[in-house]
Amino acid sequence: xxxxxxxxxxxxxxxxxxxxxxxxxxxxxxxxxxxxxxxxxxxxxxxxxxxxxxxxxxxxxxxxxxxxxxxxxxxxxxxxxxxxxxxxxxxxxxxxxxxxxxxxxxxxxxxxxxxxxxxxxxxxxxxxxxxxxxxxxxxxxxxxxxxxxx
Length: 150
Description:
The protein is an all-beta fold. The chain is globular. The chain has a five-stranded antiparallel β-sheet with strand order 6-5-9-1-12, with no helix packed on it. Strands 2, 3, 4, 7 and 8 form a five-stranded antiparallel β-sheet that branches.
């Protein structure tokens, strides 16, 4: 599994606690990516067609917590999560339309890397689950692949 990392060493969020949504505020749309301000991290990612974007946080054991980014400014989805600092492993899941003819392939079963990440951890595995669509057959590319890739 490939995940983005904020900078420097990992700051685990715990193995039994849900993501600290009570520490989640709207944050800012810029700068894009994950930026630590000393008290927490602002996350911002662009999607013109998304109807929802989940921020996925991972602890040192690979356990995943999801929080919905609370704000959208233009096409930028963003939120600030207090207590999350440098080294936190994270990714995004994007909800929205599945309309391949229009180039819209939102698929929340796919963990996406932050295109503005400053560090990436893990290894890529070339398996069918990484594709957003079902491979093979007459309708290849048209049917959504519901297999989780994380």
